[in-house]
Amino acid sequence: MSRQPAIREQMRLIAGLRWCLFRNSLRSLRGRLDVVGYVLLWLMLAGMMFGGGAGIGFAAYAFLSHHQAASFADLFWAVLLFWQLYPLLIGTGGLQFEFGNLLHFPLRYGSFFALSLTYGLFDPGAVIALFWLACLTLGAGLARPGLLPWVVTAALLFAAMNLLLSRAIATWADRWLAQRRTREILGMLFIVGILAVQFAGPALVRWSAHEHAAQRWVLPLAFLIHALPPGMAAQVIAGAAAFRPLVALAGLLAVCLYSVGFFWLLHLRLATQFRGESLSEAKALAPPTTHARAALPSAGWRLPGLSTRTAALFERETRYTLRNWPVLLQLLLPAFFVLVLSPSFKHTRFFTAHPEMAFPVAVAYAFFSENYWIFNSFGYDGEGIRFLLLAPLRFRQVMIGKNLLHAVATGLNIVLLWVCVRWIFRPPGVEIVALTLLVSLYALLVNLAVGNVVSVRLPNRLEFGVFRRGRGARGLAVVIGLGTEAVLVGSGMLVFVLGIWLHSMGLAMLASLGLAGMAAAGYVFSLGEVERVILHRREAFTEELCRTPSAS
């Protein structure tokens, strides 16, 4: 009777398989370009990692040097928020892997669980957050060497808690977003959360003005925030610094309890997957009835100025996008962060001197949030791309239908941001709004032109209606997208500086019109390039989008 392989041996075999797949991918030009893209992407993230780590390390040193150990909660909050929000902010811009595909192999549940944690540990956000924790530990150790054992223990437990929490969020998000009803519930909760966060600040300020209200609401809320994992991790250091080991041990116990709770939540999902759960929105077939009638197809949209085919393609893209909650969430993020962060940035030196610049800054972030969507336009088409290639229409019409949806989504996002900025800041002037719209037109045309070419040359399949499932955006596509946005933000800033410095917004508008004209010419060229690429690389393009995630 043959023995079952140990967990270590199973993990070694899976790692060897992944290494062989990676090594074989380097034989193609596409694979080598992807590796170059990922290296460049990590170089871009290195500045954030080392800069943030240096700031956290110096802050930890200063807190302990000035006997402010309780302020470590702010540092732990920064690490937790970055670790958990990085996947949401970046979207699918990283190497992803579908863990359900591991069940094709004779794995034990322990190996399956360990591999899930390992992949989460090597996520870019996790690597940066772990480096920040190491810098926090180093800064605290230099300030108070005697506290180093406590700081190391707190940092390790906090890292384990964050790893379990991030994996639990990812797995449960896949479960909830796989069905339409739960997507609708989460959508409503997200909207209610946006409104609640916005009204929480003014409400707390109003209540804090009354002593009785402050004691009734503010103090319990502060206690609740302190009881969360960052506050408990900071309590470990504060208790050790004050020579109160029981307080420090209580903090360690609390972080351990949080870790156990997140471990249990992750175990529930992974155990269900291990038993063969298959998430699907398909309904069971109803028995045929004698009075069944054939459903008549509803008339398609009739849009003025568009041909029937282009309007049908636009309708198709709109309906699919409205059912794809991760994309909608990504599009709503700019307004969410404007509502959440604007009260804090409103009184900074820059926005106090130039409050009218809040609208352009918010619009610039909106373009970054749409990056991964525009630069991978066919990601969610999957095997449906075959029907588009067989349909009696030119492929530039397919591209125009997708671009129209991108343009409409960008316009709606800009209007929503204008409403948010007008509510929080003072209403931006007519000249600032007009200049922002012209620069946005230029940026949109450049994004569409570059995104069209990248979408057909570097296509990448994504899974519809789920969160971070699939292979994610290609490394080179991510680098091209981030580089394009950086150029657009830089050129847009130059236009605004030109208008403000010369006190001539009219000249700045003429400059943006010229840039928009050149971008329009580039967009027309990109449509022709798309047709040429599809004509000569149709097989490779189709194969890439029809490939299952397990083949990556």
Topology:
Layout lengths: L6 H19 L3 H37 L6 H19 L18 H13 L2 H20 L4 H30 L2 H29 L2 H16 L2 H13 L3 H30 L33 H15 L2 H21 L3 H5 L4 H12 L1 H4 L10 H6 L4 H30 L5 H28 L17 H27 L3 H32 L1 H9 L6
Helix pairs in contact: 1-4, 2-5, 2-19, 3-5, 3-6, 3-9, 4-6, 5-6, 6-9, 6-10, 7-12, 9-10, 11-17, 12-14, 12-17, 14-17, 14-18, 17-20, 18-19, 18-20, 19-20
Can you characterise this structure?
The chain is globular. Helix content is 75%, strand content 0%. Mean pLDDT is 77; it is low at 91-96, 292-296 and 467-473. By secondary structure, it is mainly alpha-helical. The chain has two domains: 7-179 and 219-274, no CATH class; 308-551, no CATH class. It contains 21 helices and no strands.
Number of strands: 0
Morphology call:
globular
User: What's the helix count?
Assistant: 21
Biggest beta-sheet profile: none
Radius of gyration: 26 Å
Alpha-beta content class? mainly alpha
Query: What is the count of distinct domains?
Result: 2
Instruction: State the share of residues found in helices, binned by percent.
Output: over 70%
* pLDDT < 50 stretches: 91-96, 292-296, 467-473
Mean pLDDT across residues: 77
Instruction: Report strand %.
Output: under 5%
The CA-CA distance between the termini, in Å, is 34 Å
Q: What series of H and E elements makes up the topology?
A: HHHHHHHHHHHHHHHHHHHHH
